[in-house]
Amino acid sequence: MPDSSISKFFEKSRKDRLKIIGNFANLSEDELITLENMNGGISFDKADKMIENAIGTFSLPLGVATNFKINNKDYVVPMVIEEPSVIAAASKGAKIARIKGGFEVTADESYSIGQIQILNTDANIAIKKINEQTNEILKLANSKSNTLSKMNKGAKEIMCKEIDTPSGSMLIVELLIDVGDAMGANVTNTMCEAVSPLIEKITGGKALLRILSNYSTRRMVKAKAIFEKESVGGEAVVDNIILAYEFADNDVYRAVTHNKGIMNGIISVANAVGQDSRAIEAAANAYAAISGKYRSLSKWSKDDDGNLVGILEIPLSVGIVGGIANVHPVAKICAKILNVESAQELACVMTATGLAQNYSAIRALSTEGIQKGHMRLHARNLAAAAGATPEQIDPIVEKMVQANSISLDKAKELLHQI
């Protein structure tokens, strides 16, 4: 198995980085050329077919996080994000988690929830009738996807609930659909629209909205990692991290920023492999408020040996078939680098990345502060941009930090002095 613990990857040239990733993921020469030459990954002609009123394309940086061991498998994790320090933080978090065996992650089966809004009906009577004809409704829904039916997946269950609104009560009929390795939005919407006339006939009501819910509580993912107390910085630092977590868990203003850091990791991976980042964000934020109060998505504690224990549990709807992941050339290469075999495995990697990112962020906040490391990384990038060799970068960074002058001009000045 390849090893994702790659020493000083950030110091290597782009050519060397591509060579390392090419070897790790067994990329072809054409795939390496695509990564090297296609800024943004798609032509305007392709973009014009993806959205309306297209006028161009928009690129973001693509990098990789190293050191990840998840369920005893090594991963190099592609991440697309414009914010500095995120990829470094995820790599550092994974490196510390690796000492105690890495991340243990479990994921539910890929069940999507479709909702059909029924108006002008007696909910109690309607629910009884729907329950009596469940098999007929499921059969009709499954007739809309031969692929899922052949895989023994598809619509599995019907649930009903009545909700009260200012306009009166409404009946909500929900389809629970096993969508396999797809994200499942299209097939869920198709099934909801297909069965709504039958449900209207059964209930005597009128169907209005027929659409999936992005609140994917039947696709939960739970990641856990132990961070060795000595590597964290000692038990006092462990205690401070727990105090930082308790702040986030009990104050909404802190919780929003705390959870944003988690999503820095998760959404960066989502962007790289062509997932619906808006759906992921919406579901995570809804889940953060499941108790009735917006709280931390992660939980931090210590074990009997004083080590730091982190847990992150979120609803996460992702897929490895269909959607942009199958048409965007760079997203396809990123999926190959990640080398996941199921939607559940992808969800596990994304959740572990969020936990790694969260660890690094709250450790920095509870020790030296977030800005010191952030600016040091920025200084390193500026030194490289100025033309410094790997051997020259660290001395230039130290001098910029000491002078509290971090700019490209300062980096060039220090390089000239060297």
Automatic annotation (TrEMBL):
GO biological process: coenzyme A metabolic process
PROSITE patterns on file: HMG_COA_REDUCTASE_3 (PS01192), HMG_COA_REDUCTASE_4 (PS50065)
Gene Ontology MF terms in the entry: hydroxymethylglutaryl-CoA reductase (NADPH) activity
Descriptive protein name: 3-hydroxy-3-methylglutaryl coenzyme A reductase
Record keyword S-adenosyl-L-methionine present: no
Similarity remark: Belongs to the HMG-CoA reductase family.
Species: Candidatus Nitrosomarinus catalinensis
Keywords: Oxidoreductase
InterPro entries (alphabetical): HMG_CoA_Rdtase (IPR002202), HMG_CoA_Rdtase_bac-typ (IPR004553), HMG_CoA_Rdtase_cat_sf (IPR023074), HMG_CoA_Rdtase_CS (IPR023076), HMG_CoA_Rdtase_NAD(P)-bd_sf (IPR009023), HMG_CoA_Rdtase_sub-bd_dom_sf (IPR009029)
